[in-house]
């Protein structure tokens, strides 16, 4: 814990991008998320930490309604994006997901070429008028995913033929290619080496200029390095949510302190 | 480290060597060995039956692919032909001409016989006169010259040369006796009789019960072909659309559960039930023509649908959900996720399932019994598409069944030959399935 670089970063703006109120999630009878209230700020990196199985991924998936795809999953409570209820009947989850992009815990590139992976989102959203524009978008996305140099000579090779870490960066590139306003990242670096991790963290920092990023991580160092706000989950509850610096130096809850000092989890 | 091992071994101090096999491991090895032997025995039994089947098919069926013919040079004399055309039963007069030519050819070749031309004609197929006349009608210009005909030998002569018919077997035969066979031997030496590949068997039409030598499977092959077109046109889109909807879009509730159970049950329904359904719906209610490949195809569609739906759903299910998540995650709609990502991945499985369903339909006989495609003598090939779908026809398996039913052993031989052709088709379809699978899989 000594090498943690706790950087006091002023949160640029207090605009609230996503606000969640009394969110409950049930998988059948399993009450996975209990009474979670959280305000996620714009142009901020928010880290979710907590022991395995505490519901970080589940809550993250609520934010772009990916839980809709799980039949047994039931979400209650209000989640607002820019003041609009994302669970409103009029909301098309497809539009929502174009605004709230996601990088999944397990790398899941499409079994298509690297180029097609990055180009898919822009293509279906009609972001490019012609091939040249699309090429540009793809290159920019792959650069931001910190994978351009490794794949620029083999854009036609299948994305599934990359190493695990490269696949994850490809997935990040794919997610940023659609220029989402919020990027949800579920343990994006768990399969990456320190160099790629540093590159992804750099990317996250860059994305913060325009978007808000929510990142789930098991690495306390990473949370401390990249985030301005940190939320600690435990057994489906949001135990503590505060400035990252405060969480790591002076947590209010005992459970938070035990976790970050390595006693529970 | 020593500490740790001391904890796991039950009796400290008595360290076992990994060079000796302990009793527990020996037992496991024995069990493994036994299982291997069972497996090998099972495979051997399977291979034995497969070999028996192949040997039976090849030894019985290949003979159908050659045919004995009698080669005769017949002068086309205008006066004789005119005289023959003046008769009421014209072919009988032409038959006489063939008989004369045969007698002449035999004496030219130095084969001596007491037999009348009528008796000699027994060695030829009953269609010889008709063949002669057809040639004359089609080629009026040839009259005045002469033409070399290759008449089909009668099925008995053919069988004799193939070793199927023996002299003893002819004792009770009213058509042919041993003396004929002696003549056949001599004619063969003189080059009047030859055995060649039987294209007519593959491309020809079925013939009446008394002329097995003229029967071919070609027309019923067309019947099968048109049926497969119908099955493909209906079963594939309906089956795939139903599976995609059920698998990807339908809500999970009682109703869809019920449909699911029903489809699974339908796949196990005996095919004859589909036959009677086809009879009731397509012929009695919708008044489609009987024995038509269209009706056969629709009936087989009903039968194949469950197979296609089940295999399509299985291959859709096997696409990892993370792919759907990935597509939805970048803002694709459900439909885009399915059509851009899931379906291409499931394609090899879907195609394999479909082709297996088609192959099943191709070999199906029972439902055709009920809609009248069995027992129909397909003597004319369909002329054109509409007639192909709507005119009465048979299908390959039905034709084989029909031949196997007929009394003449020559038909039995044709039935085996038909089985070879049917199996070749099924093999081709399976190879196509494998190739398509390879092609689609290699893309990823
Ligand atoms: N698809 C699902 N169906 C049923 N239960 C689920 C499903 N996904 C998650 N759960 C349950 O919800 C709870 C929270 O899981 P979740 O995946 O959100 O944990 P997590 O905090 O992301 O853990 P990890 O750090 O290991 O990824 C767990 O008890 C899990 O068993
Ligand atoms: Mg998780």
From TrEMBL, chain A:
InterPro entries: AAA+_ATPase, ABC_transporter-like_ATP-bd, ABC_transporter-like_CS, P-loop_NTPase, PstB-like
Record bears the keyword Mitochondrion: no
Subcellular location: Cell inner membrane
Coiled coil: none
Segments passing through the bilayer: none
One BP term from GO: phosphate ion transmembrane transport
UniProt cross-references to Gene3D superfamilies, sorted A to Z: P-loop containing nucleotide triphosphate hydrolases
Keywords: ATP-binding, Cell membrane, Membrane, Nucleotide-binding, Phosphate transport, Translocase, Transport
Domain ABC transporter span(s) in chain numbering: 18-260
GO CC field: plasma membrane
Gene Ontology MF annotations: ATP binding; ATP hydrolysis activity; phosphate transmembrane transporter activity
Membrane topology listed for this record: Peripheral membrane protein
Main location: membrane
Function summary: Part of the ABC transporter complex PstSACB involved in phosphate import. Responsible for energy coupling to the transport system.
PANTHER family listed in its UniProt record: ABC TRANSPORTER I FAMILY MEMBER 17
Identification of the protein by name: Phosphate ABC transporter ATP-binding protein
UniProtKB/TrEMBL annotation, chain B:
ABC transmembrane type-1 domain boundaries: 221-433
Molecular function GO terms recorded: phosphate transmembrane transporter activity
Principal location listed in the UniProt entry: membrane
GO cellular component annotations of the record: plasma membrane
Disordered: region residues: 1-21
Biological process, per Gene Ontology: phosphate ion transmembrane transport
Location(s) in or outside the cell: Cell inner membrane; Cell membrane
CDD domains xref list: TM_PBP2
Topology with respect to the bilayer: Multi-pass membrane protein
Keyword entries, A-Z: Cell membrane, Membrane, Transmembrane, Transmembrane helix, Transport
Keyword match Zinc-finger: no
Family matches, as InterPro entries: DUF3333 (IPR024573), MetI-like (IPR000515), MetI-like_sf (IPR035906), Phosphate_PstA (IPR005672)
Statement: the UniProt record of this protein carries the keyword Nucleotide-binding: no
Gene3D superfamilies: MetI-like
Transmembrane segments: 37-58, 225-246, 258-283, 295-316, 337-359, 415-436
Sequence similarity: Belongs to the binding-protein-dependent transport system permease family. CysTW subfamily.
Protein name: Phosphate transport system permease protein PstA
Organism of provenance: Salibaculum griseiflavum
């Amino acid at each position: 814990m000594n090498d943690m670089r706790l950087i006091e970063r002023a949160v640029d703006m207090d605009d609230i991008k996503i606000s969640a109120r009394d969110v409950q999630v049930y998988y059948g009878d399993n009450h996975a998320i209990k009474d979670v209230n959280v305000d996620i700020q714009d142009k901020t990196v928010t880290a979710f930490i907590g022991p395995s199985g505490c519901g970080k991924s589940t809550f993250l998936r609520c934010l772009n309604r990916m839980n809709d795809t799980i039949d047994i999953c039931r979400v209650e409570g209000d989640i607002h994006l820019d003041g609009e209820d994302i669970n409103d009947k009029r909301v098309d989850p497809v539009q929502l997901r174009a605004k709230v992009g996601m990088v999944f815990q397990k790398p899941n590139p499409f079994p298509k070429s690297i180029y097609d992976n990055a180009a898919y989102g822009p293509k279906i959203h009609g972001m490019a008028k012609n091939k040249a524009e699309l090429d540009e978008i793809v290159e920019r996305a792959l650069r931001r995913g910190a994978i351009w140099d490794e794949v620029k000579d083999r854009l036609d090779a299948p994305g599934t033929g990359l190493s695990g870490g490269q696949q994850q960066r490809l997935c990040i590139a794919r997610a940023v290619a659609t220029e989402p306003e919020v990027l949800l990242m579920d343990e994006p670096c768990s399969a990456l080496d320190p160099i790629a991790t540093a590159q992804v963290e750099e990317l996250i920092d860059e994305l913060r200029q325009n978007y808000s990023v929510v990142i789930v991580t098991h690495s306390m160092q990473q949370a401390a390095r990249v985030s301005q706000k940190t939320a600690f989950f435990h057994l489906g509850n949001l135990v503590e949510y505060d400035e990252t610096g405060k969480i790591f130096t002076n947590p209010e809850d005992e459970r938070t302190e035990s976790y970050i000092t390595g006693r529970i989890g | 480290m020593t500490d740790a091992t001391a904890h796991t071994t039950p009796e400290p101090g008595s360290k076992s060597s990994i060079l000796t096999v302990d009793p527990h491991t020996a037992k496991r090895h024995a069990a493994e060995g036994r299982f291997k032997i069972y497996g090998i025995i099972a495979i051997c039994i399977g291979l034995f039956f497969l070999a028996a089947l192949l040997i039976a098919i090849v030894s019985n069926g290949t003979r159908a692919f050659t045919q004995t013919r009698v080669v005769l040079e017949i002068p086309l004399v205008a006066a004789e032909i005119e005289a023959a055309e003046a008769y009421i039963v014209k072919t009988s007069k032409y038959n006489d001409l063939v008989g004369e030519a045969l007698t002449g050819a035999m004496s030219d070749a130095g084969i001596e016989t007491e037999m009348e031309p009528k008796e000699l004609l027994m060695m030829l197929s009953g269609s010889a006169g008709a063949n002669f006349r057809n040639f004359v009608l089609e080629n009026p210009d040839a009259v005045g010259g002469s033409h070399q005909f290759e008449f089909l030998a009668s099925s008995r002569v053919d069988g004799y040369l193939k070793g199927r018919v023996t002299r003893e077997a002819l004792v009770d035969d009213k058509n042919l006796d041993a003396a004929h066979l002696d003549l056949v031997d001599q004619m063969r030496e003189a080059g009047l009789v030859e055995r060649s590949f039987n294209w007519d068997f593959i491309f020809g039409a079925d013939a009446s019960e008394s002329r097995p030598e003229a029967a071919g499977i070609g027309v019923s092959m067309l019947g099968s072909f048109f049926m497969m077109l119908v099955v493909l046109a209906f079963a594939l889109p309906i089956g795939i659309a139903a599976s995609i909807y059920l698998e990807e879009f339908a809500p999970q509730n009682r109703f869809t559960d019920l449909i699911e159970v029903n489809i699974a049950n339908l796949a196990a329904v005996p095919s004859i039930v589909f036959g009677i359904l086809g009879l009731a719906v397509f012929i009695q209610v919708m008044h489609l023509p009987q024995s038509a490949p269209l009706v056969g195809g629709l009936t087989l569609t009903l039968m194949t649908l469950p197979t296609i739906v089940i295999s399509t759903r299985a291959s859709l299910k096997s696409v990892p959900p993370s792919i759907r998540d990935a597509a939805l995650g970048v803002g694709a709609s459900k439909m885009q996720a399915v059509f851009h990502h899931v379906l291409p991945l499931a394609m090899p499985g879907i195609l394999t399932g479909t082709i297996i369903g088609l192959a099943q339909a191709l070999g199906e006989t029972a439902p055709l019994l009920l809609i009248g495609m069995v027992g129909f003598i397909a003597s004319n090939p369909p002329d054109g598409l509409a007639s192909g779908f709507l005119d009465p026809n048979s299908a390959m398996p039905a034709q084989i069944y029909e031949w196997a039913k007929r009394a003449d052993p020559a038909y039995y031989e044709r039935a085996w030959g038909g089985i070879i052709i049917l199996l070749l088709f099924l093999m081709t379809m399976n190879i196509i399935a494998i190739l398509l699978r390879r092609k689609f899989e290699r893309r990823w």
